[in-house]
Structures are given as C-alpha cells and as structure tokens.
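Interim report, section 4.2 (structural modelling).
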Amino acid sequence: MTAASLTRAGADPRRLLKALVSQEALLAIAVIGLAIAVGFYNPRFLATRNLSDVLLGNAYIAVAAVGMSMVIISGNIDISVGSLIGVLATVSGTLAVDGAPIIVTWLAPLVVGMLVMALQGAIVAYLRIPAIVVTLGMLSILKGGLISATGGKWITDLPDSFHLADIEIFGLLPMPVFLMILAAFLAAFWMRYSASGRAIYAVGGNAEAARLCGISQPRTIVMVFALHGFFAGIAALLYATQLRVIQSTVPPNLELTIITAAVVGGVSILGGVGTVIGSTLAAVLIAEIASALVFTDVSPYWIRAVQGALILITVIADILRRRRMAGA
Amino acid sequence: MSEIPLPSTVKRVAPWWLIRHETMLAAILLVALIVLGALNNRFLTLDNLLNQGRLTTEVGLIALPMTFIIIAGGIDLSVGSIVGLCAIMLGYSWKNFGFPLPLAICFSLGIGAAAGFFNGLVITKVKVPPLIMTIATLALYRGFAEGISQAHSVRGYPEWFYFIGQSDLIGVPAQLWLLLIAIVVAGIALDRTTFGRTLYAIGNNETAARFSGLAVDRVKLIIYTLSGLMAGLSACVLVSRVTTTRSDMGIGYELDVIAAVVLGGTSIFGGLGTIWGTIVGLAMIQLLKDGLALTGVKGDATIVVIGAVLILSTLVASSLQRRRDGV
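Predicted structure of the assembly:
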C-alpha cells in the first residue's frame, strides 16, 4: 500500500511527503534508525542473535496487537487481554502435560480465547455496558482465577512436540515471526477489502451512519471481540511454547504493552482509523526499545515509562493532526 | 452563579431511583453483615469492623474524587499508579534528597496533585478521552515509580510517622478520622455547592453545561487534580500502615475504587451518583473481602469476586436505568 502511494507520489511532491509521514513509514524509519543509532553506541546490539531474540521473544505481542487494533478501531478497548493470554497459555500447557493430542493443545487456546472474548463483546454490544467496565472486571476475574487455580506453580515437563515456536518454516523462518507477518497481512487485507472488515471502520467511525448503511453494530462488535480472542489465542500459544516452562501467572502489564503497540501503530483512539501493519511495526519498535535500554546501560526499569510516554505522544499528535485537518 | 440551570431530569428522577438503589444496597449490606456474622463469630466484632475501616481507608480516600469524576462522565485509571509514584517519592525524597519527613509528605502530595493536574490538563486542553489519557499515565506514572526507585524499597521511618497508619484516636483508627472528614467535605461539596451541581450538569450533557456558561474545563481540571492529590494522601497512609515504600504499591487500586463507586449506584455513563452510595459500595467491597478471607478464601480469589461484582452491578444499574427511561 505504501509502495503504491509512493509510485503515484512521483508526480506530486506533496503526496510523496504525505506517504513518508504515514504512521507505518514513520515507524519503519524509527525501527531502522534506532537500530543504527544503538548499533553505533554498542555494536553488540546489532548481532543477529540479539535482533532475532528481540523479534522471536516479542512476536506474540505483535500478534495480540493485531486483535487489539481491531477492537480499538471499532471504538472499544480491552484491558483483559494480558490476563487472558496468561490463562490460555496455562490451559494449553496443562492439556499438553496431561497428554492431550498436540493439535488439541494448539486449538484449545484459540477456541477458549474466542469464547471468552465473544462473551465480553456480547455484554458490550447487547447489554450496552462500556468495554472498560466489562474488561476491567474480566481482567480481575481471569487474573484471580488463574492464580488461585494454579497457585502460581510453573508447568514443566512439556512434551517436545508441543513447542510450536520452535518450528521453522522451510527450515528458515521461525514460526513466531512467520505467524506475526501472516497475521498482520491477512488481517490488513481482510480489513481493507472485505465488507465485514470495512464494517469495523464504519462502526468505529460513525456508529449511527453505519447503522443506516445496514451494518449491525452489535454483531460487528461481537465479531471483532471474537477475532481479538482468536489472535490472543495465537499469542498465548507463542508465549507458552517459546520457553520450556509456562509460568502459570499473568505476565504483568502485558495488556499495556499490547495497547501501546496498537495505539502507537497509528490506530486512532477515537475509533475508525488505523491499520494492523502499523501496530505490528510498533510492537517491534517497543521490543527494540526495551532491548536498546539494556545495551545502552539504561536501567530496564524505565521501559514502562517509555511505553506510557509513547502512548501519550502518539495520542496527542493524532488528536492535534485531526484538529488541523478539520480546521483546514 | 447561584441559579444553575440544571437539566430537569437530574432534579426529578435522580433522587427517586438513587434513594431506592441506596436503600437496596444498604439492605443487602445489612443482610451480608448478619450472614457473615452468623458464619463466623470473629466477624461481627467492633475490633474487626474498625480494623476493616482501617484497611479500606486507602481505597476510600480515592473513591471520593473518583465519584466526582464518574458523575462528570469521566474516569481515572491512573490512580493506582499515582499511589505507587507518591509512595516512592515520599521515600525517595526523604532518603535521597534528605528532606525532613513532613516536607517529604508535602512533596509527595504535591507530586500526586501534579500527576492528577497533568491528566486533567491534557484531557481538557487537548481533548484526549479520559480513558485513554489515564491508561497512558497508568503506564507512565508506574514507569516513573519503577525507574526512580530502581525497585529498591525504603524503610526505617521515624516512629511518629506510623501514627497515621497504625494507631487509634479515641478508639478509632487514626486514618479513619481522615476518611470521615474527607467524606463529610466531599458529601457537602457534591450536594450543596455550585461545584457539585456542576458535576451532574457536565455528566448529563456536557455541551449543554458549556452553553449554560458553566466552567466545564476548570471543574474537570479540579476533579482530576483532586484525584491525584487524594491518591497521594492515600499513598502516605498506606506507607505509614505498612512501614515501607515499594514501586508496586497501589497496583489494582483502580479496580477496587471503580467497583466501589459503581456498586454505590454512580452511573458509569455519568450524571448520577452520590457520596453516600460510594460509602456503602466501599463498605460492601471491604466486607466482602473480609468475609471471604474469614471463610478461608485466599486473596487472589477475592479479586475474582470483585471483578464479577463490578460487571454485575453495572448490568443491574444500567438495566434499571433503561427500564426507568422506558427504552
């Protein structure tokens, strides 16, 4: 999409400028620029080993950010996703240890994720309770439920065949990165070219207009949440299979990282605007920043402040840009 | 400014159903007290109830301004992080800057107010939705707390400081007096002042409130600042009670606070709510926690119940409201 607008832009310098300042392009520049800058400071940052670790270890956040982007574009929010990923990882791991067929252990988190999220979507859409209340409540239900069910015990002795994240496509592309790219592109195409994909933008952009166009708002919201649950399921699978153990607790503040990726990726918090390619790039950028802190001898304890600042800057920039566009 | 043109629905409808909601809640509270008391003979003792009051003060102090904010149609998810940041700033300024403790307390209260003011400033000036703004600062302020403290805790405060959090005044936990004063002030402010009535007007119809010449932005700025300040106060009480500062203090407070406010009948859509409802909601949540703990349920399982209570009470409130509105 960016490439196409670039070629068209040849004739019109203003178009070229516009394509360059698109959120995706900015993020791509930031990802590469940061790598070069930190590379100068500490060349070890650019070691293939480190870069692939950054990508592999955080691919699940990018996958979850795809679903989160859809939720935010539809004009909602979900802060329960971090807890859900913890629960789904444990469900999958427990099944694997109990000797369930591998395909079942891989499908279970997807199905459970879709069910939990569809339920939340239904409460939001049909009972008209704000998503923040539903997902805040669900966050503590899932978090408390998981810790009291597992007692925080780690799951070990996972069968070797369980480790989806170890598979390499064509012996080259690691599964997490493959799934990350696949999820981003499939979702981007679907959201851009299918009627149900466009419906998400319509509902988030102007619910009343969407209704008048014959789009069922409740049904779209349930669909969006169910899809978000599906992506959370994939994310949980990658999270569960990347190490030899599953920690059986909810990764702290995972939902904040995922929301940061979605928002920084250019998904407007006012709904109706954004792409999932941007949020995938943003997830990579956030992971890169976290790693860069370590390599530049800055304490990693600052990472959450960086995340908060990133959300804040993106959101303020988004709103100011909209205001200027409305004024022009 | 004595004649505030309030939407008529506020005057006529709100008291009718709010009184019912609160009576209902109070009745449930009473039944819960009796059942829990019958189940466990340690529960219905003055000592236990006063101790529960001590434990609920930190959440209660924040629930008061949160009631204001939710009535005005906003939300503040960053309160837990402000508690963490203020606790850290209290310990850090005392230990690393060498501030005398009273100054450190004032400093940390100031940080809290500044954190809340910043929320309010961006919400009113840039028009960032409160939900997103306070999610961003939820991360930002917690990040500051972690970055500044580097996960080190500070302890060893002078003995007098523990008075606020651990001792009794006329047989009642010291911090409970603080909460009582805050409740009275908040109740009067909400019910009897222009400021309080403006909150309902904003929550019911912000545009109308603006056109009626109400200082909408200034009032919003005040309530978010107040929220930060009270979170700071809550942090001081918390540090005094548990004798240490850690950067993970206050995590999850937003859940307890919002659950108490919503359970107390304040509409999450704005425009409806009372301080007294919040107090009953607060009491119910604390007694629920205590009752569950006494019957042997572990701490982690109680947050499951609070999450469910939050969703269910919103469901009930909104279906009642919808029936009343005839939708």
